[in-house]
Amino acid sequence: MKAKDAQLLQLNDKLTAAQALHAGTIQALQDKQESQAQNATAMAAEQSTAAQAQIKELSEQLQELKAENQKKEQAQEQLTARITELETAAATSATKSTIWSRLFHRSKK
Description:
With 109 residues, the protein is mainly alpha-helical. The protein contains 1 helix and no strands. The protein has one helix spanning 2-108.
């Protein structure tokens, strides 16, 4: 009986050691998974921050381009208005010239 008890104690010790090893392995795997999850979370946060910075930069560039475009449109409107003024002045001048020319020719007759 003592031999069987000793054998049972030995098997029990082996079982306890195997259970401890198994528990240690599980804990190590859980620790590794937790570490990987933390790393993934940190990486995602970094990518989000970088994306937000890029969005801000692109938004600023867009605002600058809109401002430049508005200035160009205003300049174009001013040029169009000036061209219209000059065309009107030229037409008026041509009309006056024609009238004076006709009056001059009439007075010569």
